[in-house]
Amino acid sequence: MRLFSFVPVRQLSSGNTTNLLGRVAACKQWNELNTLLRTERDTHGEPPSCDVYNSCLNHLIGIKDNIGLLRLYSQMKELNYPPAMKHVSSLLKACKQLKRVGVSLEIMADVASSGESQPVDHSLLCLVLETFAREGKTREALHFFHMNVKQPDTRSYNALLNACRASQDWRLALLIFDEMLK
Q: Is 96 in contact with 131 (CB distance < 8 Å)?
């Protein structure tokens, strides 16, 4: 099942897109960017395109605004706009820094359900598992691992064991070790 579906948006001429993207680049913080997107939507009666939203994600990554990044992701989700795959890692890093386990799960579910999905990247897997571990949710980490890693290798098991070590869940680490030996 594909989570994101096509949502018709207005077609911008290249001049309007360039102008809008120039205004996006001038924004110094999330509030300015949010006001710009809201004004654009109110002026034209429709939200800007998915490409514009992904450019906004890119801008927020550049100015290191993690809270704004997750807020924009939330708006994109409401519009059924998928984040570009190149932004997923930054979104997960923002979740990790802000300790937002639920959001990181949503992002990974979106990645898994999108047609672009690759096998779960090791660095993304580590980010999600570390986020679980920081919250002391190693059982959820194990469930996530089994749901998203189809052919576990040593690196993915290592990420899971690191999550157990971070939360000091030694029983679960032994269960995982036994599973590795099978």
A: yes
Nearest Cα neighbor of 108 from 29, 91, 5, 172 is 91
8 Å CB contact between 53 and 76 = yes
What mean pLDDT comes out for the span 91-96? 83
Residue 128: both structure tokens together: 């999600």
Nearest to 96 by CA among 131, 49, 61, 60: 131
Residues 6+ apart with CB under 8 A from 144: 105, 108, 128, 129, 132
Length of the chain: 182
Q: Give the residue, 75 or 112, on which the prediction is more confident.
A: 75
Rounded to an integer, the average pLDDT of 102-111 is 76
End-to-end CA separation in angstroms for the chain: 32
How many Cα atoms within 13 Å fall on the side-chain side of residue 48?
A: 27
